[in-house]
């Protein structure tokens, strides 16, 4: 599913670029380092704002639906308000209104170092895994896919859900967000431990992941638990985890979480469905193994297309330029690990796949449009691609 969110439409109606993303501004303006305190002050105001917005604009038409949208996974259909990020066809995902390059400039200042330190220490306090989850992971067969293990472990953490207990006890709906907050913070804190445990079981004979160090950041603790001490790898994980921290609401994983959560499933159950979506083959690519020549790779791509399968891309089909998440990782790799075999393979794909796909477009459309018209379209595409690479 590639469902375009309505956040930007709402922002235009309200007349402000970043109106849905008030949390960033609130944290900047707040002297509190405690995220829950910030939210306690913010949420009633947001509830009132949204209520007023719906009263004023509830009947406003924001788009049309055509048959292709319905059959095409709702692509291009504005059908969901997702406040923390949105997908721009030209700029990629914008987090709270800002593109990745803009965030790279903001991050040293927003949030403050005190706020960052507070949240890392808070996650450190919540990170320990319950014994039943550890036992389950230790008893999984080694041939069970890591994503299956990950999803199962997250689901099993549901036993710890404060929201599920509070809901069963009849908590007032105005308090739901507090329980959701606690569960979400617990889950975020535990995810690196679950991941590291699976990794150690599969690749390091079940060796211990070690203890969380409350003086280290989330990514640093994660790489330590994996068993890596290279500062460059830790920095790469900081980059990788940051740019994947949110992903607009219309993709398979985020939309699934929204959908399951709407049934008041707790964050553990909702997030486990996210992982099941991410485990789909269109989120990955077949392992070719070893080094391959450009010719071998080109043949592999053509064989894949000619067999009726697709070549999985990086992010959404709606994007018209290279995903900036890939771009910033590529820049990091070119600087720090240009000879890494996996990066070299990905770089080959980056170089070859677009030209194969464009040539395939020519073959498919030349009868309908004529050679000259197709050639003009392809020349424009080549020029766009060349300007990106330069």
UniProtKB/TrEMBL annotation:
<protein>
    <recommendedName>
        <fullName>Citrate synthase</fullName>
    </recommendedName>
</protein>
<dbReference type="GO" id="GO:0005759">
    <property type="term" value="C:mitochondrial matrix"/>
</dbReference>
<dbReference type="InterPro" id="IPR016143">
    <property type="entry name" value="Citrate_synth-like_sm_a-sub"/>
</dbReference>
<comment type="similarity">
    <text>Belongs to the citrate synthase family.</text>
</comment>
<dbReference type="InterPro" id="IPR002020">
    <property type="entry name" value="Citrate_synthase"/>
</dbReference>
<keyword id="KW-0808">Transferase</keyword>
<comment type="pathway">
    <text>Carbohydrate metabolism; tricarboxylic acid cycle; isocitrate from oxaloacetate: step 1/2.</text>
</comment>
<dbReference type="Pfam" id="PF00285">
    <property type="entry name" value="Citrate_synt"/>
</dbReference>
<dbReference type="GO" id="GO:0006099">
    <property type="term" value="P:tricarboxylic acid cycle"/>
</dbReference>
<dbReference type="InterPro" id="IPR016142">
    <property type="entry name" value="Citrate_synth-like_lrg_a-sub"/>
</dbReference>
<dbReference type="InterPro" id="IPR036969">
    <property type="entry name" value="Citrate_synthase_sf"/>
</dbReference>
<dbReference type="GO" id="GO:0005975">
    <property type="term" value="P:carbohydrate metabolic process"/>
</dbReference>
<dbReference type="GO" id="GO:0046912">
    <property type="term" value="F:acyltransferase activity, acyl groups converted into alkyl on transfer"/>
</dbReference>
